[in-house]
Amino acid sequence: MAAKKFPQAPAHPERVCWGCDLYCPAKDMRCGNGSDRTQHPAELFGDDWDQWGLLDDRDAPPVATAEMGKPAVR
Q1: Nearest to 49 by CA among 27, 25, 20, 18
Q2: Which pTM was predicted?
Q3: What are the residues whose beta carbons fall under 8 Å from the beta carbon of 3, sequence distance 6 or more?
Q4: First and final CA of the chain: distance in angstroms?
């Protein structure tokens, strides 16, 4: 069973609860995920929520730390 594709910019995000894969209407939530609906990330963080951090992380070299190469302590 494939997971549903998460919509990046839905037309009316306020009409849906985004808390699980059911995407229930806000007035008829079936999962019992609290008493309020879970907001879509675009409602919380703006329309560019899915682009955060991608530009900065892509060009940055990996950071070496002093702990790299040490054996794990058990």
Answers
A1: 18
A2: 0.59
A3: 21
A4: 39
